[in-house]
Write a structure and sequence with these properties.
Elements (H helix, E strand, L loop, with lengths): L2 H9 L27 E5 L2 E5 L5 E2 L1 E6 L2 E5 L4 E5 L5 E4 L2 E4 L3 E9 L2 E10 L9 H11 L26 H10 L15 H6 L16 H11 L12 E7 L2 E3 L5 E3 L1 E6 L4 E3 L5 E4 L5 E3 L4 E4 L3 E9 L2 E9 L7 H5 L6 H13 L9 H13 L5 H9 L5 H10 L2 H15 L8 H17 L3 H9 L3 E2 L8 H4 L3 H13 L18 H8 L5 E5 L6 E5 L6 E2 L4 E2 L18 H9 L7 H14 L19 H13 L4 H10 L1 H4 L21 E2 L2 H12 L25 H5 L19 H9 L1 H8 L4 H8 L3 H13 L5 H14 L4 H13 L2 H4 E2 L1
Parallel strand pairs: 2-10, 12-20
Antiparallel strand pairs: 1-4, 3-8, 4-5, 6-9, 7-8, 9-10, 11-14, 13-18, 14-15, 16-19, 17-18, 19-20, 21-23, 22-23, 24-25, 26-27
Helix pairs in contact: 1-28, 1-29, 2-5, 7-19, 8-10, 10-20, 11-12, 13-17, 15-16, 18-19, 18-20, 22-25, 24-25, 25-29, 27-29
């Protein structure tokens, strides 16, 4: 960079301002109104107390606009209509005798009631090993991964992680260590209790307090004869949060209650025995007893885990913007996406940014749909077009461009790991060409995936069959299918029940056996492998030592002895409109590519404990995709036609911190391949890739192993594992140094016949040359201030310096954030 470049950078400083909150669109005016609670609620509204040991925590909520808007902690009284049936102590209901009673909560002038049914209050009560002892061991961390739930256990004592194997844990506790872990005649001397209370030296320290409910559960179970888990035990069916959602303010505290529903119809308050996590700690935190504290504005997701069941609660903490309803009611709404996004913004009191300018839109859309900058001529024609449907027409035109096939073949090749590291070149080309044909034909996504997971025959004749060459281990194949087509990681269930999802160890191995019979043999010719399905062969479930019946996760199991190709049944389940995961996975992935961030983020980690930023939109977009017969182009069209997509990236006052709710378009760095192609386009000098024609662009490369220091530096994925994390959009020192001082731009500036040569040969005035470069790189003309500064810098450069000035200008533009980011 020479001294003139400093002036160029000064003139281009405005090109980075789109990323700064210093430049904002007009903000909506705040409203002067506030909402007031219109009543209270006593929760749970229906209480069942089963047995003499039962109790239920009660909470009183303010209600406003049909929603819970905060817990009332003081000035509340709760009374029982019949103390002979139920009594209230410190906010908890306790059984006295069988029957039905009404509880009444009073707070100021408001009242609310709840019904209580007490049953078996006088019957003997035995704690269950499966449902209660295991809960104590889990809550206290005894069977956690850091303690005895570790793969090797601790000090010779190994439990299943979080108690997923009750039968095995029962044997370990009652029969190993010469039976010293339990003393039926003197429970207090049981190692299980003396260690947990630290009465005897214990590396994990005290875990249970003597005299606590947890201590009594374990002690009473031992004294009762250590009753083992049986098939007659009531099985847990589900858990739920009460309340399931609430609107709160920073610093508010909210007690959440967790109810467990069992197969025999009884319900237990398991709030104190549940484990809690939060997906958004900057909005809300929660302690071990379910007491939530609001820490900021936004939307928080709280998850509870109890006996392998999960529940979630949503906490909304609106921003202190108080935006008038007319802002949301009068906002442009092109389709259902806008309706649902604006509903969420209204709830959170986040104002939307206005519509993007035409130059913003054509550049953004071209990059997002075809991975290519619009040309100078395309930009001018679009800006000068006054027809009201020009944006829709542009969308349709880009969806049919050949570059669309190039770009989306590259994106799907990332997902499917097309590379020559594990495949011979002939096979790699066959695989890539299969992907490319599907994109060109706009093959419906369900048919695309069906062809892939049932592929067989020669990998050179049926490129899709290379999927099974890349993934030969049935366990790794299962995990890849789950991530790529369901958007979920089930890896944890390989060793134990998934701690953050509903998937069990049995379900994992059932899924594995859906693909365990895929076989391969060498065919004639280099890279040719014959893929076929065998009629025998299954993976053993390590826990049982037997093959697990083949089963597509939460579907029905297949006959273990059926010789048919199980992948057909897998494909039927996987691509079914009734499968709640399939459509959501790809819509979330495509949404993230177009909008900058997924509704569920990360897009490879869709799970109950990682909820979408807009659950209604997440479901509606998936339903729309199914209704459109899994048509990816129609999905993309719907997204980019929305006002949500077409908003400016410039924040308004009140939405500067929003990075989840789509109040504006989120700027993001261009993909490595798009950047190098854009530099080639702006300089009019193609990039030569070894082994490929000089005219080939980076988005056309089929292989992630094509040598390129630039692509590697700017985060091109290696395509080794199915994960969006493989691709990086970092903009650190390595990337900055390469852009500013590397060969990629500088060599193109010196190449003969480049854009600068053509501009100089045209004899245009310098002002027009500057316009040409801005339109080619940024899809806009320079502002009046930029033009003034650049022309001043040109005059200072002196005679005979036209080329040097233009080189510096192109270098400065291609080094700017405005060029390197999509906005």
């Amino acid at each position: 960079m020479n001294s003139k470049s400093v002036g160029i950078l000064v003139a281009l400083a405005g090109a980075a301002l789109f990323l700064s909150s210093a430049t904002r669109a007009d903000a909506p005016k705040p409203a002067a109104t506030t909402s007031r609670p219109d009543g209270i609620a006593l929760l749970p509204a229906q209480v069942r107390l089963h047995g003499p040991r039962a109790s239920q925590q009660l909470i009183v909520e303010r209600v406003g606009g049909g929603r819970y808007v905060g817990q009332i902690g003081e000035g509340v009284t709760i009374t029982s209509s019949n103390p002979k049936i139920v009594t209230i102590k410190e906010g908890r209901a306790f059984p006295v005798g069988d029957g039905t009673a009404t509880l009444t909560a009073s707070a100021g002038s408001h009242q609310a009631t709840a019904t209580v049914v007490v049953e078996k209050s006088g019957a003997p009560y035995d704690w269950s090993f499966r449902n209660h002892v295991q809960s104590v061991l889990t809550k206290t961390g005894c069977n956690s991964g850091a303690c005895h739930g570790a793969q090797a256990g601790k000090k010779g004592f190994k439990l299943s992680l979080r108690g997923y194997d009750s039968e095995g844990d029962f044997d370990v506790i009652t029969r190993q260590a010469r039976g010293r872990r339990v003393s039926r005649t003197d429970p207090g001397r049981s190692l299980l209790l003396t260690k947990a209370t630290a009465t005897m030296p214990h590396g994990g320290g005290p875990r249970i307090e003597p005299g606590s409910l947890e201590y009594d559960v374990v002690s009473d179970w031992i004294a009762g004869g250590c009753i083992p888990p049986t098939e007659d035990d009531a099985e847990i069916e589900r858990i739920e949060f009460v309340p399931p959602a609430a609107i709160l303010q920073p610093k508010d505290k909210q007690q959440l209650v967790v109810l467990a529903h069992f197969s025999d119809g009884h319900v237990e308050d398991v709030t104190g025995w549940s484990k809690y996590t939060t997906a958004n700690g900057d909005v809300a935190t929660i302690d071990d007893e379910g007491l939530l504290t609001v820490t900021g504005n936004g939307e928080g997701a709280i998850s509870a885990w109890y006996l392998n069941k999960l529940a979630k609660a949503a906490i909304t903490s609106p921003y202190n913007n108080a935006i008038d309803d007319y802002v949301f009611e009068n906002a442009i709404k092109r389709n259902f996406i806008d309706e649902l996004v604006l509903d969420k913004l209204r709830q959170l009191q986040i104002p939307p940014s206005p519509r993007s300018s035409d130059d913003e839109f054509i550049r953004r859309l071209s990059i997002d749909l075809i991975g290519t900058l619009p040309t100078r001529e395309e930009t001018i024609a679009f800006i000068n077009d006054d027809s009201p449907d020009k944006r829709d027409r542009l969308i349709d035109e880009l969806l049919e461009r050949p570059e669309f096939v190039d770009y989306w073949s590259m994106r799907l090749s990332d997902l499917l790991l097309v590379n020559s590291e594990k495949l011979k070149p002939e096979a790699m080309w066959a695989y890539y060409n299969w992907v490319r044909r599907q994109v060109a034909r706009n093959t419906p996504w369900d048919e695309f995936v069906r062809q892939l997971v049932t592929a067989q025959g020669s990998t050179l004749e049926n490129g899709a069959a290379n999927f099974f060459v890349l993934h030969q281990d049935p366990l790794e194949l299962t995990e890849t299918v789950s991530v790529a087509f369901l958007g979920m990681s089930i890896n944890c269930a390989r060793c134990h029940n998934h701690p953050l999802e509903k998937w069990t160890n049995d379900q994992y191995f059932g899924m594995v056996n859906m693909m365990a019979r895929v076989r391969r043999k060498n065919g004639p010719g280099t890279g040719n492998v014959i893929v076929f399905s065998d009629t025998r062969g299954d993976i053993i479930q390590p826990l049982t030592g037997k093959p697990q019946a083949p089963r597509p996760l939460d579907a029905k199991a297949l006959d273990l002895d059926d010789p048919a190709d199980r992948r057909i049944a897998l494909a039927n389940w996987l691509t079914s409109p009734e499968n709640p995961h399939f459509a959501k996975s790809i819509t979330n992935r495509v949404w993230s590519y177009l909008m900058g961030t997924g509704m569920v983020e990360k897009v490879d980690d869709v799970r109950l404990t990682n909820p979408a930023s807009n659950e209604k939109l997440f479901a509606a977009l998936a339903d729309h995709f199914i209704e459109q017969d899994f048509d990816l182009k129609k999905l993309m069209r719907t997204i980019v036609q929305s006002q949500t997509y077409q908003r400016t990236s410039v924040p308004v006052t009140g939405n500067e911190g929003d990075d989840r709710f789509y109040s504006r378009y989120y700027p993001r760095r261009l993909l490595a391949e798009v950047i190098i192609d854009a530099i080639s386009q702006v300089t009019d000098v193609p990039t030569q890739f070894k082994g490929y024609p000089a005219s080939w662009r980076a988005i056309q490369l089929p292989d992630s192993n094509v040598p390129s220091y630039f692509l590697e530096s700017f985060g091109r994925p290696n395509r080794e594992v199915t994960s969006e994390d493989e691709r990086s959009d970092a903009m650190g020192m390595v990337q900055i140094l390469h852009i500013t001082n590397g060969d990629t731009i500088n060599k193109k500036l010196q190449a003969k016949g480049n854009r600068i040569d053509k501009l100089l040969a045209s004899k245009k005035p310098m002002s027009e040359m500057i316009d040409d470069i801005f339109l080619a790189a940024l899809s806009r003309q320079p502002t009046a201030k930029e033009r003034e500064q650049l022309l001043a810098a040109y005059q200072e450069s002196g005679k005979g310096q036209d080329r040097a000035f233009l080189e510096d200008l192109v270098w400065g533009v291609c080094s700017s954030k405005e060029f390197l980011f999509n906005h």
